[in-house]
Description:
Distance between the termini: 39 Å
Strand content: under 5%
Number of helices: 23
Oligomer: single chain
Mean pLDDT: 85
Amino acid sequence: xxxxxxxxxxxxxxxxxxAETTRLQSDASDPTCSVWVSANAGTGKTHVLTMRVLxxxxxxxxxxxxxxxxxxxAAAAEMSKRVFERLAAWVTMEDRALASALxxxxxxxxxxxEMRLAxxxxxxAIETPGGLKVQTIHAFCERLLQRFSLxxxxxxxxxxxxxxxxxELLSEAMDEMLLAATAPENAKSPxxxxxxxxxxxxxxxxxxxxxxxxxxxxDWLERAGGAAxxxxxxxxxxxxxxxxxALPAGESHAAIEAAVEGLLTSQDLAxxxxxxxxxxxxxxxxxxxxxxxxxxxxxxxxxxxxxxxxLTQGGEPRKKLMTKALVDEYGALHEMFCRAQTAFVRIVERxxxxxxxxxxxxxxxxxxxxxxxxxxxxxxxxxxxxxxxVAKAAHLLERSDAVEWVLYKLDGGLDHILVDEAQDTAPLxxxxxxxxxxxxxxxxxxxxxxxxx
Length: 453
């Protein structure tokens, strides 16, 4: 209580804050308005959704025409529990207590018809075929696909893979990829090259972790052209990655390594070496690196020698190429040395971009192959995973030939959509919600003489 006093001031201030919060929650639960509620954790967002469901029912909305989507099964169970507890309590409340409860919920005194309806809502909700639809987005998509399996092009009576089963099938798909990549007949295939490239670029995070992340981008893998063939065409990915990394056409490691040849002449390097040898131990160490550049063969060896000269072990540009005494005495030479370092850093950035391009393309090819095999293994079992539920539902509602029929059937059964934890709803899940709601505001759905939110 002392904390609340320090936060809000005296008792009257606390009452004002409480009253304002209650008013805002009442506005947000108004069943005649479409609203978005943004608030911190623990401030009553789920409570507002529960109030909204109750007010919709009290306003005469049939339970089957309400869809409440939650982020987890636990949240769905909790919201259903809250709704049915309130409805059950209304059945046996004394008239005065019921009137007070309904007035607190709606902000006005209830009519006699509302009082009678409130006492019947528990039985109505219980007897509704299919029940009050408070469920996760995955549960909703599962029911949708079961109802329209033919239109969605999914196996009737499909099974849903749990996390363990999904991991087993993915592991099997990865094994098939490894067999294909190492098969003698595929030794010169793009898949074999991609495997060698990916393993070469893999860091301490591990190849499997990187592959797992890539497999999470299913839409991109499909658009990129990843397929089961070891030589699948990835031109879409190639163009996209090259554009994102600003790679010039025909960029190659050979061209990048050749670009360092004009940084410093042999005379420049000899002069730099001579000056550095006259300095401190730090200068003398760089003098050895300058000599190594002179002696290195053109190409990769000279590029690596320049890396040692101009960069730290961590790959960052050296902050000092000469100590202060040498800079003061050989200022012009130091400036030339620094210009060469700046030019080399730009060349290194070119090489980094090319490496990212090669690694990304290799990972895309490998992940595309694995995903295709995983898809084949699921088809053999007539199974879908949780990501498939949402993806297939979104495709059914947005892009399939049967979309008008499906939306018509659903449109006849939904008037209100509520989404809990909307900030955690993935883009593809929002595609499902958007497709469901679009009929509210277009065509016959927009002309019906009723409020739809």
